[in-house]
Amino acid sequence: MTATLWPLLADLLEYPRPTLLGELDAALASDPMDAGIDAPLRRFREGLAREGFERRQEDYTQVFDFSADTAPYLGHHLFGEESRRGAFMAYLKKRCGETGVQIPAADVPDHLSLVLRFLDRLEPGEEREELVRDCLVPTVARLQQALERKQSPYADVLKALSRALAAQAAPVSAA
């Protein structure tokens, strides 16, 4: 697993900014990744270069902001409107603060990009393993399937993320 993978995936799952293509190029050039992760990120990069970040902004809004089945909020997919979502968000807010992950005022702590930044800060251990196995893997699988059905370019980002999570979980399964 490369050192920049979780932050890179977090960046790709935030509202696109003009510098995204350059940041993606730099990450892909400087940090060798497993082919299963690299290939979908390169497809996403090619679409971004061809269509531009403004088009990617439209895609992002259409897919992540206007569709419940592809909302980028883990608690939504894991708990729906149950009270457990509130407990989950309180846990994430507390732990993000303890690990130095900044939560923008306009966002909530269960946004996928923030959870990936939190994952990047966690030491190996039970908390990290549970976050990957019980929260990220099922949510990302659900999002990836929904994005593939919609033929969204973000399906490639979720495919890369799914493969990275599988690689992260593999050592846990082998133990």
What topology emerges from the helices and strands here?
Elements: H1 5-12, H2 20-30, H3 35-51, H4 53-65, H5 74-79, H6 83-99, H7 112-121, H8 126-149, H9 154-174
Helix pairs in contact: 1-2, 1-7, 1-9, 2-3, 3-9, 6-7, 8-9
Explain this structure.
The protein has 175 residues and is mainly alpha-helical. It has helices spanning 5-12, 20-30, 35-51, 53-65, 74-79, 83-99, 112-121, 126-149, 154-174. α8 (126-149) packs antiparallel against α9.
Euclidean distance between termini CA atoms: 18 Å
Helix- and strand-based class?
Answer: mainly alpha
Assembly classification: single chain
Order of helices and strands: HHHHHHHHH
Q: How would you describe the shape?
A: globular
Q: Can you count the beta strands?
A: 0
Rg over CA atoms = 15 Å
- The percentage of residues in β strands lies in under 5%
Helix content: over 70%
Question: How would you state the average pLDDT, rounded?
Answer: 90
Q: How many distinct helices?
A: 9
> Biggest sheet, open or closed, and with what strands and sense?
none
Uncertain residue segments: none
Q: Can you give me a brief rundown of this structure?
A:
This protein has helices at about 5-10, 20-30, 35-50, 55-65, 75-80, 85-100, 110-120, 125-150, 155-175. It has about 180 residues and is mainly α.
What are the defining features of this structure?
175 residues, mainly alpha, 9 helices, globular
